[in-house]
Sequence to fold (549 residues):
Amino acid sequence: MFHRRLTIAVLLTAVGTASLRGQRINEIEPNDSLPTAQAVSLGEQVDAVLGAGDQDWFQFVVTTPTAVRLFTSPLGPVPVDTVLTLFDLAGIVVATNDDQRGVHSDISMRLAPGTYLVQVTGTGVLPTGDYSLDLGRVPAVPPPLVEAPEPNDSIQAATLVNCGSRLAGNFADPFDRDWYRVTLTAPRSAVVLRVLNGSPKALSAFDYKVRDSAGGLITATATLGANTGTGKVVGSIVRCLPASGPTDYYFDLGGNGGAGDYELEVAVMPLGLGLPIPESGITGIGPGQFAHGEITAAGEVDLYGPISVGSEFLFAQTDPRTVLSGALAGSRIQLLDHGFLPIGSPFTGGNLFVNGNHARAAWRLSGSGTVFIRVTAPPTAPNNIGGYRLEVGGCSLSSVYDSAGKRQPQVNVTCLGSNGLRPSLGTASDFELPVLGSTFVRHVTEAPPLSVGFLIQGLSDTMSAFGPLPLSLALIGAPGCTLDVDPVAFTLVAMDGAGRATIEQQTPPNASLSGFQIFEQALVFDPQANPFGATLSNVLVQRLGSLSF
Fold:
């Protein structure tokens, strides 16, 4: 037990329990143009102000391929409606975002080595005020290639896979079959299973069936191949499947009469989320979203993006939507790079939900940058003007980690201090999250002025070295107070004259910590409050993650 608790204490110390200087910095004016951009570093949080008509510029350097999380948060009671735009050193837009986190902005993507600039501007009815800019840094690491469990040769033993799964599989003999299960919750989802030859005994082809939640056949046996040689693509299964609540689907794979090794990459891409985006010039769209567009004249071109990509799958499909000019009878989809140059050939046909010539496309992309989607109507379509819906999905093979989050359970409501208040542990806004590679700021409030105490941290809120939690402290002179966190690590906290303290945590840019949960509670020494001489706050549960939304 001592060794385990020592290990936990060391881990908590690595996460960062003390107030760390140099991670939270102030904006330095003037920085209202590209030449005067303020130099900042990944891992810092910048406290800044947007005035009327103001724009703030910041510059940072990426030395190795890195996943970054750039996001704004409110610093005061009034939120600031921000727009984030990321540029490369040549001034080319890499990505832009507005209203990802309420009225605040978020850009999450992988960047190649180089110098980048961030522009923050205000918009809407709340364009001015105090805000913070976090520059998170998480190493871009590929997901592990894990061995698919055997036996998985039946619906009962099917292997669960999801976005970002990479597995090594094997067909032991010509009659062996491997089953995989996906659980979908979005109105519909694009699912891609990309099968590559494995090593040392590579496949030359494979066959597959798609089944519903009861095992019923949706797609009859289909065969893909044949390529040979380790690492060569054998084929990709692309399906768009509906769901109402949690719905299971199964993919039943075989070696097409042969045996051998293979690798499997899985992309599960939710579609149809949120409200439709109206077409407007070059229309901004992101994975999971959908837009309503209209081709009003023959030869018209509609552009959507920019879409930030890295080593990931991207999916798009169109279907007809009736407007005043009718519904578009057919469409073509093509992927463009950040300079609007085509990537590959246009896709036509293939939407599984509608008849006709509407397009469905899936791309496996490598590298970092931005892309656009171009929608046009085939000139020979019987009705080449009309309305359509464009859906976009994405699945990053490097973003298989949990999103950052927090909870603030309200406990110890009767554990009052000498000021008649219970100490409170929380954050300045709902948008403050423990994102890997950035600064996470918490506050202790409602404590007696100039008091001192400890931030208690542990990895459990149900069991401690003293027994089950919560643990009542009434027997030691603190009625109404409970210990709700396993006390493993302690950080000294000193309040100011308003009974408030700020705790800044530098969350390491270590992807292996994603999903790691920390339970926190503040203990405040208050000799006048009760015979025990201390009170305890509510609990803050933080879940570390690489995504800030």
